[in-house]
Amino acid sequence: MTVMPAAFLGHGNPMNALERNRYTDAWRQFGAAVPRPRAILVISAHWYTNATAVTSMVRPRTIHDFYGFPQELFDVEYPAPGAPDVAEAVADVCKPRWVGQDIDSWGIDHGTWSVLLHAFPDASIPVVQMSLNAFKPAEQHLELGEKLRPLREDGVLIIGSGNIVHNLRAVDFKQTESGYDWAHRFDDSAREILTSAPSEVATLDAHADFDKSVPTPDHFLPLLYVAGLAGDQPMDLLVDGHAAGSISMAAYTLGLDAEITPFDGDAAGAALPESFPALDSNL
């Protein structure tokens, strides 16, 4: 079987699930370009918990883990089947690290379904989510990503879903399509590493703009898993841009032999609702 590509997708505002713009179009083209996976493993920023685990239920539920958005977004369902056999394979390749099997706690959260709705809209491919252990250092997340490599040779598409820059306290609703200078600087430095030596991505914690760009690790850590998969193999930029000043929409692919064409339409990503409570939204 062909070695499956992998990707890190900057998911941003959940409203992107309902819209079409240059980010969602890039996700669609990515989904159309990869060989059909036997399963998809997603490391989502929104399963940030106290252990490393994978969903192993047959029918994972769609989780609407956010607040302050219109009812239309809460009505979205992504009824993909689960893949208990893939969950077991994840636990096996990660040994001696322990990976728990979650049969009833989590499901498919918006960090996963907001991008898969575009990349694989028919929801027919089994989906497994892997949690982020909040108590482990960056080096261990990078190591776990490296351990997942054999799954790519077994038809599993691995996606990290988060945002390289994600600072909700600095959100500026007026900056619909732009970012602060510090957000651009950090994004640019991340791009230099990811497109040359991805395994060095954890060194970004020494960057002068790291604390502003990554005030909490949850949205940054999914990138480390894909960088761990890549090792010294350069990644390719899929799409880039910023939203609300302090959110990077950059996305990268690994091992994707395809050309993505720019979206011919409104370039802006989804807008946040007016008077949006960013800090209380689980954005």
Query: Roughly what percent helix?
Result: 25-40%
Number of strands: 10
Detail the poorly predicted runs: none
Q: How far do the termini sit from each other?
A: 37 Å
In what order do the strands lie side by side in the largest sheet?
5-2-6-1-10-7
Order of helices and strands: EHEEHHEHEHHEHHHEEEE
Number of helices: 9
What fraction strand?
15-25%
Mean pLDDT, all residues: 92
User: What is the 3D shape?
Assistant: globular
**What profile does the largest beta sheet have?**
6 strands, mixed
Structural class: alpha/beta
Computed over alpha carbons, the radius of gyration is 17 Å
Describe this structure in words.
The chain has helices at 22-33, 71-74, 84-93, 110-119, 138-147, 149-152, 181-194, 210-213, 221-230, and strands at 6-10, 39-49, 53-55, 100-102, 127-133, 156-162, 236-239, 242-243, 247-248, 251-254. Helix 1 (22-33) packs across helix 4 (110-119) and helix 5 (138-147) packs across helix 9 (221-230). The strands form three sheets. Strands 5-2-6-1-10-7 form a six-stranded mixed β-sheet, sandwiched between helices. The chain has a two-stranded parallel ribbon with strand order 3-4. It is 28% helix and 17% strand. It is built from nine helices and ten strands. By secondary structure, it is an alpha/beta fold.
Sum this structure up briefly.
The chain has 283 residues and is α/β, with parallel strands linked by helices. It has helices spanning 22-33, 71-74, 84-93, 110-119, 138-147, 149-152, 181-194, 210-213, 221-230; strands spanning 6-10, 39-49, 53-55, 100-102, 127-133, 156-162, 236-239, 242-243, 247-248, 251-254.
